[in-house]
Amino acid sequence: MSLSVRCVPRLLVALAATAVAVSGCSAAGGGPAHGAPEPEVSAVPVLADSAELALPLDAYEATPEERELLVKAQQVLTVRCMHRLGFDYRPPQRSGTSKDAANARIYGVTDPEAAARYGYGSPGEATSAAPGSKGEPLTKTEETALFGAPDLRPDELPKSQREAERESAHGDVPVGGCTRESFLKLYAPDPESVDVLYVFQLKSEAETRARTDSRIERVNTRWSACMAKSGCQAEEPMKAAEELGFTGAELGGPEAITAATVDVACKKKTNLVGTYYAVQSAYQRRLVEQHAEILDLARRQLHDRLRLAATLTS
Question: pTM of the entire structure?
Fold first, then answer.
């Protein structure tokens, strides 16, 4: 295998590997985040790919297919609102969606076939520009109808549809425009609606805490040493592309493909995916226990939202 030019010569690799080993000795005992003890992990599964994994908090979020349904439902609500205001509005056409599973790249690139084809890049979503009534740019009046008054501050926006219905702006135009109305009808119909980002925020908290877990730090050190043996200098698996200097179109270029292939091999050799999964799951389970009541409400509201979306798009 020819190495990427982003990877340094062997002499520097040996020096870097020594530095990694030394720094790893001092970092291995890193304390848990936020002063809480590290959660117990009874077993670490041997895993090479993350595509089929399910984490504890995933049960409280929409699947990729369900998210696509919700996007379509919100578009229907937006179109209805614009038509009510007298505009022949057509939402942007979605030209494609990612075929990746929800957790396909939660730990960076892990699939050898994807690494060989896309490197650190991936086929993403794309949408066309928002058209006006006839595919033309939106007029000022249409913009106001769609997005609300331009001088509105975020703290002035209604937090629920029930609150929005008690207010009025620019005559019949809802506060925040039809975009805000469609969002509220679907995601926040009343003040008791759980913030749509609540589960995401818990996931981010679990990820942040896991990042400084001593077991994650140790596997990162082993992965970094493995990368160094192949001439690639990177310390954090989640920032490998950035640390190797790949940006934009370079993420899918031949150099990135070579580096990503090494990355995947090192993750497999060190069982990085299995370790990350076990540790992050432990932090998520702790948060599920701590926030069980709100999470149960969020899940019930998600089911109600999906039922509404199904009726809107049928």
Answer: 0.82
